Amino acid sequence: MSRHCVTLPVIIFGLLQMAVALYSNPSSTHPNCTERCGNVSIQYPFGIGSGCFRQPDFSLTCDDGGGGGGNQPPKIFLHDGITEVLPDSGGTVGLSRLIDVAISHTIFMAPGIPSYNFSWNLSSFTMFDGSFNVTGCDFDIYIQEPGTNGSLWPCTNRCPQSITTETVARHDCNGTGCCIVYLGISVRDFQLKFVRHDNGARGDHDALSNGSALWDTINITSNWAQIYWDIDDQPTCARAKEKNINYACVSNHSQCFDDEVFDVGYRCACNSGYVGNPFVVDGCKRDEGYSPNQLKENCSRSCGNISVPYPFGLEEGCSARKLFKLNCTNATASMLQFDDDRVVAFINVTGSLVGIRFTSQFEDGQLGIYVSGEPDLFMGLGESVVSMHWAAANLTCDEALKNKSQYACCSNSKCLGVNSKDGYIGYRCKCLDGFQGNPYSISDGCEDIDECKTQHICKENEVCNNVAGSYYCTKTTKQQGLVLGVIIGLCVGFGILVSCLGGMLVIRRWKRDIQKQLRRKYFRKNQGLLLEQLISSDENARNNTKIFSLEELKKATNDFDTSRILGRGGHGMVYKGILSDQRVVAIKISKIMEQGEIDSFINEVAILSQINHRNIVRLFGCCLETEVPLLVYDFVSNGSLFEILHAAEASNDFQLSWDDCLRIALEAAGALYYLHSSASVSIFHRDVKSSNILLDGNYTAKVSDFGASRLVPIDQTHVVTNIQGTFGYLDPEYYHTGQLNEKSDVYSFGVVLVELLLRKKPVFTNETGTKQNLSNYFLWEKKMKPVTEIVASQVLEEATEEEINMVASLAEKCLRLRHEERPTMKLVEMTLQFLRAERLNSSSDVPASKQEVEELLGTSTSYSDTLLDNKAATTSQQSKGYYSLEQEFASTTLPR
Predict the structure, then answer these.
(1) Using one digit for the tens of pLDDT, what is the confidence trace for 692-740?
(2) 871 labelled ligand-binding
(3) Which residues, 6 or more positions from 800, have their beta carbon under 8 angstroms from its beta carbon?
(4) Active-site residue, 561 included
(5) What are the residues facing 114 on neighbouring strands?
(6) Any idea which fold 513-635 has?
(7) Catalytic residue among 687, 705, 731, 745, which?
């Protein structure tokens, strides 16, 4: 009897272990699990049906519309029933950590009920970003802060004055019957609260409400939303490996990563060189996705005037792999696309190149082409039109040759490796010497070049003989008319020589006249006459601005010799030049402009040429005799702040002292304040970054590169523009709204301050190999630990703790999400003035008097007392019930 009592708990424990294994181990999932919903593939750890998913939040449902036979494809929902999962670019759900979703929910309002709530909370998921349309009327909308009693009031839905449908209200969504709610980045859950103005009484709206659902319902519909997920049954990879029975990364050649944001949970990924599903046994495999045989006949091979050769294709079965399938969205306009963000300009199979034009801003790490389940086979090489190398498969040539059924290189071609700065990409194919054609195509592959069709390939009295891949010459003799032939040849040759010389002189003169006409045409097109008039009517502009001829600038740059190139930027190329008066200048060739941009460019030159500030690079003038106007600036000899900060990071060369950093920051802040406030027309720089802060021979700061700047009348607070800037420095509010204001420059300057403190690039790679945004990293780390623990060692050695805390606090204020909460550049400059004055006073042998400090500051010491209390003010601000910047940007990983 006692033996049975001892054995029973052991049996129960074993059954519990089996249950856990069935719940979490992919090898134990039911063999009859549904693997597709319509055309979408469902990948574990997600699944449909009991035993087919790893954890409860990964349970999916496939809604086929009740089997009604309609034309609408089936929809996939998470287990909450309101979150629709949209497949990724590869037509799958489960392989991509970042998932596009659509959320739609309706609340029916009843008389007498004053408020309603809508919540979204799935423990395994994080709302990465989202925008929602809320239709209805006569209520305020609040975003409840998680874990607090605080709330954010984003908008109010007013009732229309006449009968209006939900469709019409949603079209404008301007606060009348509909408003837009933006969620912060990376929130675990959120709750919307709807508070009716009249406590739920219908009032005078009965007549209108009978004609529209706006008065009776609240509809929450996402414009766009993204979520990402983690395995959350264990807090870290280490803990999961200890509990080996629950460990999710079961495939060979897979690896585990801890959650970077909330420090709870982990994710799995295949090792470099492997693709597939790391959550199933043997899910990570070497690349097997290339098919050398075209599966469909009579494939279309062009989109407008762009040729689409194999291995690329426009239809299913016409490309060698999913990654090479393209979309011809408009054949008339030759609009060939990978996706909405990437337009194809050309495809070159000979050099394995493809030209990509991006329709939105991208950082270097986002230039690749990504399809789920496919390896990254593209490597960017350019700028606005990016020439990208591509590989057929992520295999070495030796690996590819072992599997002839998937080998890409057809006859008369050879295999070559493709490498990038980050490592090996894969292999490509090239025709052998003496052959030409498409090395990837079986039907029109590499064919022999008939070299004998080339004139004079063999010597005189020799006959050319073509062979496969080459040719050879055989000798022959001429026995008749040899002397006569020589005489005729000399006469003909002399006549041809005289004709050629005369023709060359005529052509040279004709070309010179054509060039003069073309320069005059460009001068008129670029509004040269208008600029001349502006300069002649303004004495100050006449003394400071010169219209250079193209010949002057060619001479100054040795005909734009490539050795004179100083750098390539987002807005053009810069050459070093020496003018005839021995002035050293920087000559910028901007990118192609629209005619409307050229019209405003002239005004901009006239105004920028009048800027007179010691910390702004001086504009000497421009040249209008080329298709795109050239700008001539003062040359600044010591490069940029970015180069010195991060070259010193990689080596032990010259490093800026803390005193130099404070001075440079103060000078740059003063220049930006001058642009915002001191000029007759406010100038928003729009691309403030450390690489645009140049240093002269004395390491004095010079703010440069106004290619993205916008001139704004002093009575305007903002201007709506296309989004433009540099990733890592870009103001997130400007990115979301398109409304540019002076506080956008303040945000970017805050990133520069963080660079000076941490000596890290604005986008850097952390210890785990993941790219991180510097501003997000700084705000998160500052929140978790003292700032002295995250600053660079040199800063910690040279600066006092009080100085570090003041600069960190100033940077934090500049990086606030809402522009109203950021300081002005004037306040930033005054803060840095005070800090530098205090440092000079403390380091001086004779302490400076109060009057001397005030003179340096240009303000009263009562203001400096206020600045010193900023730490207390910051603490007070953080205690208020509003979303903070850290909450909005809690994610330290980059978006895909």
Answers:
(1) 999 998 999 999 877 656 666 555 666 666 677 788 899 998 888 888 8
(2) no
(3) 839
(4) no
(5) none
(6) Phosphorylase Kinase; domain 1 (3.30.200)
(7) 687
